[in-house]
Amino acid sequence: MAKKIIGYIKLQVPAGSATPSPPIGPALGQRGLNIMEFCKAFNARTQDIEKGQPCPTVITVFQDKSFTFEIKTAPASYFLKQAAKINKGAKLPGRDKVGVVTRDQIREIANVKLKDLNANDVEQAMKIIEGSARSMGLEVQG
């Protein structure tokens, strides 16, 4: 018989640097999970991802205090900021332009994020990423 799921915990953890400090420790501790076991497993699984890249993680908690976790791709804004070489988006998107991204860069990001987006193909994924770029104050060229 399958284990009974008692809940999910959603966290955004930097790749390769999970520690028992907040926000990870308190979130897992209140469910009675082994915090160090999660940190070791997460860091081992993210060792080949660029250190510090934010990784949205969904932890499935079972009744016997065991857990599994799924790591999703980094947010589109993270990739867009890297592509445009900027630190943050515009304060007034639509009015201010803080950078430029090309359609090739958007296609690259869409290919990376495709499995986590609600899109059937790369063209649809590109439209989603373009919308994110515009809402950050980035100009799309090409």
Task: Characterise this structure.
With 142 residues, this protein is α+β, with helices and mostly antiparallel strands. Helix content is 36%, strand content 23%. The chain has five helices and five strands, in the order βααββαβααβ. The chain has helices spanning 24-29, 35-45, 76-84, 103-113, 122-135, and strands spanning 5-14, 54-62, 67-71, 99-102, 138-141. A three-stranded antiparallel beta sheet has the order 1-2-3. The protein has a two-stranded parallel ribbon with strand order 4-5. The radius of gyration is 18 Å and the shape is elongated. The model has no long low-confidence stretch (mean pLDDT 89).
Summarize the structure.
The chain is α+β, with helices and mostly antiparallel strands and about 140 residues long. The chain has helices at about 25-30, 35-45, 75-85, 105-115, 120-135; strands spanning about 5-15, 55-60, 65-70, 100, 140. Helix content is about 35%, strand content about 25%.
Can you count the beta strands? 5
Largest sheet: 3 strands, antiparallel
Helix and strand run: EHHEEHEHHE
Shape: elongated
Please name the fourth-level CATH homologous superfamily of the largest domain.
Answer: Ribosomal protein L11/L12, N-terminal domain
Helix content: 25-40%
- Report the structural category: alpha+beta
| Low-pLDDT stretches | none
